[in-house]
């Protein structure tokens, strides 16, 4: 679905060129404004389909350089792609026994260390050796619980977190391959909550994210209306304190008192801001959907939907500016490229779609 470009977008682009020529706009800021242009969002179309998996593709992640995309699937395989050419660089068995829910590169590892989690409750490390051989090891497990998400500490090649449907949050250090149970997420004792505190022994967790601007902070979300914020500096590694109480928690106004809702995706903006915004339009009933900021300065928000479409909103205004047909059934992942206005998406179909602006 291609929306008509507005004249104001073109006018602003001309103004930006004029300001750059007059020296009123630095080359860096000009590049940022160009990369964040709404015109580019409206030009997004399918550039290439990556086809190799034999099952739903549940996870996508670019490496830091942006030239390699890693994917994981119900077929239990992890694939590394040269996404621009569509070529498979490496494909290996994850070692999991059920659907792979996340696969991502560890930072500063020369793209040789990948961590995964899955419906079997396991967190695993895959190490790519010389010659392309892959060794996978078990890092930890959530008992009788699916693990949907991992959070990687930015710039740290050793530290990651996991959250599971058992309500447990774990901390991992790859140097020792040790797992530390931090806490079990309990219901928020808040008068706004529809769910009485005493009736919920723990909250099934779907999402965890670390604040890139302050990696001491991480947030979790699950099957209630509250996102909880924690500060790892408050954890006593000798287990002498109760770390389970969040430093803060948040509930969107429209979810207050809604006992049938839950949080399936969390993401921190790279920009420091406190403005609350609601993004409406998509449907989410069938599977756990991710949400991501999109653009060089997080100018947009993207998410998949049960209707098979990708939705893109303006972050500040909450205005829906783009809806794209992406899957016959459900879109689970929308993964932004780290440097350019490109997007990878996947869902119930077994392929991966790469979206780039037409004509650029």
UniProtKB/TrEMBL annotation:
Chain positions of WD repeats: 50-91
Superkingdom as given in the UniProt entry: Eukaryota
Keywords assigned by UniProt, alphabetized: Repeat, WD repeat
KW Transferase (keyword) present: no
Protein name, as recorded: WD REPEAT DOMAIN-CONTAINING FAMILY
A Pfam entry, by short name: WD40
A single GO cellular-component term on record: cytoplasm
